């Protein structure tokens, strides 16, 4: 069982002092893994290098998982929190939300992951919510420990809210072999954060996303040394997605409307407390304006490979 390798690409993260992130989802070959539709790995970077002014989202959940450093989150729901390593921020945009993300000065470099989870049709009009989980459940593995970020993993369930069947976990592995049971109705992705892992005769290096299609019921991970691994998965998402800038919609018109409402300061996205104009490079702005719409009609992201089955 050899995984499909999804290479990461460098993308400048928008913001006053935006950092360069390494993106694997969405990709041309693979727009989603279950409802997971976006994955950025950021850092290591200077601790205070992320300054992202208020910006909007629709039809998705943002999941922020810092590995080192800390991030100050504010949103239009009224949240004002700092997320630290081992803690999970989960914001559900529903019909619309806005938020800011500013990393804080400190001794440790900024490093972490941000995911988006696409919402199903039934949740598109829900009100925006925010939750922070500071004590996620863990489960012992044969040669390590798993922290359950979302969904159910190894019989243990995360308290984080989900709207479709999915899983997200971080594995801290010791040298040796760990057998990992998988839901065969899910497709899965593995990302090596630190260390090196082998699956059969395939070595998985840090950086890329390694994809396993529907039908895989277990994988055996052989850690050559201590290793940190992220696993995500879910049932293949059955709705077509239009993704543009920070919005998800079901049609080109959904995106056009959301963009215009953000530009018009429509109440759909609320407001984020605090002043951001003093940040170097803000040029007196308190929010990020939407870029111009492309000249062509936006189309759904579709897979450029056969339907997902175990490799």
Structure characteristics:
46% strand, 311 residues, seven-stranded antiparallel sheet, eight-stranded antiparallel sheet, single chain, 1 helix
Helicity range: under 10%
Query: Structural class from helices and strands?
Result: mainly beta
What order do the helices and strands follow?
A: EEEEEEEEEEEEEEEEEEEEEEEEEH
State the CATH topology. Jelly Rolls
Number of strands: 25
Per CATH, which architecture? Sandwich
GO molecular function: metal ion binding
Family: Belongs to the pirin family.
Cofactor: Fe cation
Keywords: Iron, Metal-binding
Description:
- It is a single chain.
- By secondary structure, the protein is mainly beta.
- It has a single domain, classed as Jelly Rolls (Sandwich).
- It has one helix spanning 252-263; strands at 4-6, 9-12, 20-25, 36-45, 51-57, 60-68, 71-75, 80-83, 88-92, 97-103, 110-118, 129-133, 138-141, 144-153, 156-157, 166-173, 176-181, 187-194, 197-199, 202-204, 209-212, 218-223, 227-234, 242-244, 247-249.
- Strands 1, 13, 14, 15, 16, 18, 21 and 23 form an eight-stranded antiparallel beta sheet that branches. A seven-stranded antiparallel beta sheet has the order 2-3-4-11-6-9-12, with no helix packed on it.
- The longest helix has 12 residues, at 252-263.
- The radius of gyration is 19 Å and the shape is globular.
- Mean pLDDT is 93; it is low at 306-311.
């Amino acid at each position: 069982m050899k995984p499909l390798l999804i290479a990461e690409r460098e993308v400048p993260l928008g913001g006053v002092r935006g950092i360069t992130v390494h993106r694997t989802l969405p990709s041309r070959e693979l727009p989603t893994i279950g409802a997971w539709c976006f994955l950025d790995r950021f850092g290591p970077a200077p601790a205070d290098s992320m300054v992202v002014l208020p910006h909007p989202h629709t039809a998705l959940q943002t999941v922020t998982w810092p590995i080192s450093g800390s991030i100050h989150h504010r949103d239009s729901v009224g949240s004002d929190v700092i997320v630290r390593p081992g803690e999970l921020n989960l914001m559900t945009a529903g019909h619309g939300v806005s938020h800011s993300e500013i990393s804080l000065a400190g001794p440790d470099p900024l490093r972490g992951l941000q995911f988006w989870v696409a919402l199903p049709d039934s949740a598109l009009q829900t009100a925006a919510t925010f939750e922070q989980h500071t004590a996620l459940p863990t489960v012992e593995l044969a040669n390590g420990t798993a922290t359950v970020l979302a969904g159910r993993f190894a019989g243990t369930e995360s308290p984080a809210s989900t709207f479709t069947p999915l899983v997200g976990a971080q594995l801290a592995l010791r040298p040796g072999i760990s057998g990992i049971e998988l839901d065969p109705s899910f497709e899965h992705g593995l990302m090596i954060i630190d260390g090196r892992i082998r699956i059969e005769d395939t070595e998985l290096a840090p950086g890329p996303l390694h994809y396993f299609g529907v039908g895989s019921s277990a994988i055996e991970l052989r850690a050559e040394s201590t290793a940190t691994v992220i696993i995500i998965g879910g049932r293949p998402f059955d709705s077509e997605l239009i993704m543009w800038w920070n919005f998800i919609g079901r049609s080109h018109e959904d995106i056009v409307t959301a963009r215009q409402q953000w530009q018009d300061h429509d109440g759909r996205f609320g407001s984020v407390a605090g002043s951001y104009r003093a940040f170097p490079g803000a040029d007196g702005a308190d929010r990020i304006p939407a870029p111009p719409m492309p000249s062509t009609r936006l189309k759904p992201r579709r897979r450029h490979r056969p339907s997902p089955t175990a490799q």
